[in-house]
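User: For a benchmark we're assembling, each entry needs the component sequences followed by a predicted structure for the full assembly. Here are entry 17's components. Please fill in the structure.
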Amino acid sequence: MADTPIIDRLALIGIGLIGSSIARAAKANGLAGHIAISSRTAATLARAEELGLGDSYHEDAGEAVKDADLVIVSVPVGASGAVAAAIGPHLKPGAIVSDAGSVKTSVVRQMAPELPDGVHFIPAHPVAGTEYSGPDAGFADLFENRWCILTPLPGTEAQAIERLSAFWRGCGADIEIMSAEHHDLVLAVTSHIPHLIAYNIVGTADDLEAVTETEVMKFSAGGFRDFTRIAASDPTMWRDVFLHNKEAVLEVLGRFTEDLFALQRSIRWGEGDELFELFSRTRSIRRGIIEAGQETEAPDFGRPHGKSDGDPAE
Amino acid sequence: MADTPIIDRLALIGIGLIGSSIARAAKANGLAGHIAISSRTAATLARAEELGLGDSYHEDAGEAVKDADLVIVSVPVGASGAVAAAIGPHLKPGAIVSDAGSVKTSVVRQMAPELPDGVHFIPAHPVAGTEYSGPDAGFADLFENRWCILTPLPGTEAQAIERLSAFWRGCGADIEIMSAEHHDLVLAVTSHIPHLIAYNIVGTADDLEAVTETEVMKFSAGGFRDFTRIAASDPTMWRDVFLHNKEAVLEVLGRFTEDLFALQRSIRWGEGDELFELFSRTRSIRRGIIEAGQETEAPDFGRPHGKSDGDPAE
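Assistant: Structure for entry 17:
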């Protein structure tokens, strides 16, 4: 717990999984003197108030950001421009404006023109989440041991970057700084293409005529169910990610497809050594991710086993 | 705990993740009077003995199956034929011979000709596992609440099928019966293609020049790490699966690729409604899998969160 909060007044625009986790982390770690919350959906805002996530609640985003030292926008990336336009005129000089979007070049393109001079705009992306959405889904340690990537524009004041970094470190995250362009390529690989492939295989399985939906569900423990987790992520958020990171996604997807065709050919021609070589190499990458502290080494993600596994009734 | 064991003498050929889990489940539930274990790898057999998994240990598979009432072969599917040839002459009349392979038509093709008349050959596949291998990786409740698929040939005695079913139910599994051909198509969808895609994306990420391996590992919590689990599965086992279920795998892969190209086109042309429709549909399939008792509803598979997450040192 910090003696003096890093931020006097924090404004959170959007209070879903990410926004509500920031609110909880800020509260748990005493990072903000006052937390102002805004959501464009009345029911979501009411729920945030019921959960006691903040100190004040505002239907109007412009009102929420008044006098705020740090504003974090956590909305689907397609809505970033509209939010920036709504809050721009109400920001106090010297305020830091940041976001939590999964795409950065598009967010810069949308938000920067709407923000006044004298405001520090620092795009950010905490690489953390679950497959659930909404204010109830958040929790205080979502960001612990995870990376928050900042993509400041050239010329951004070092002091502002350091203040935002201190806030995220207070939430448990580690900080990495890179360009928005590089961010979008890296995340296309580590997040966007994995989601696209997961959505696709789940869709393909659902569409097959020769295998029933019941069979797909019953025998999903063979591997399929792993994909359904990220394919259960928020549809609006992910639609926007793909529409707003088109170039990087199409580029990495091209590589994926090329590699998949090579693998398909190896299967067709019975090239066992090629398969064995790839399957051995991929094993060591998981080992590296575990060593990097980004994955559990418990078998099966530590999923519960035994009679009560997956049965909400028990 | 059964009063009288279902099986007098059980022989396990192969004592890796699956074989050793069968041994543990049989012991924990009193399913067999004697458990004879065989492995072609001396170190694995010695380890099984150290772990006390059985009652007798045999380098020679033929010796292990002598007088056995039930023989379960748990080896990479490419080795099925050789094992059947080795044990065939030593089987007692009336013995049940089964396996645990992930492919069934090829196993039938390999094993059936090597087995003598008067033996009940019932191919089986318990749809359960983790990404770890070897006798240490097994555990007694691996099969609990999971499906074991039997693919008996036409004309197989009902009593033998019932006895094998009782054994698997004793291990905690539910029984499903289908043809070997249908099994191979269903598992291509729910297991083989998911593994292939996971291996492929992990390989693609590893090969990119513009994104470093360190970046892939650091930012893998965006979704990528989910894929690395099944891409860390046993390379020999999975090489054999793809070589031995070629037709069904190529058929389902063709559908997957076709759907992926449609999705790619939607992204290129900015068809947000198409994306949203798919992403909403896939969400309900996960819900169905949770309701079918085949998945946990805990966020993020119930992975540990917070400081100790994934750090073996803590």
